[in-house]
Amino acid sequence: MAAVTDIMQDVLELPRTERSFLARKLLESLDSDESFGAEEIKEFQSRSREIRDGSVQPISLAELQREVSGRISLPHRV
């Protein structure tokens, strides 16, 4: 998994157009993978569009881990 994390870090540093190209290629590779249903592929495509049009900004795995760790360590309020 470390190799995937390294690749992801490198990809996230690429310009938006190159990230978009890679995202499309990855999605295309999933189209032939029968382990994903039509709804999952539709969701992947939708999220890719959101990144391309700038309505969402991707974050790194490290940032996601920090956010999740912060939420887990917070006391729950009733």
Your description of this structure?
The chain is mainly α. The chain has a domain at 20-50. The protein contains 4 helices and no strands. Helix 2 (16-31) packs antiparallel against helix 3.
Q: Care to give the gist of this entry?
A:
This protein is an all-alpha fold. It is 72% helix and 0% strand.
Summarize the SSE layout with pairings:
Blueprint: H1 2-12, H2 16-31, H3 38-53, H4 61-73
Helix pairs in contact: 2-3
Cα separation of the termini: 37 Å
Mean pLDDT: 81
Question: How would you name the oligomeric state of the polypeptide chains in this document?
Answer: single chain
Q: Give the total of beta strands.
A: 0
| Low-pLDDT segments, ≥5 res | none
* Cα shape: globular
The proportion of residues forming helix, as a percent range, comes to over 70%
Main structural class: mainly alpha
Strand residue content: under 5%
Overall radius of gyration: 15 Å
Order of H and E elements? HHHH
Count of alpha/pi helices: 4
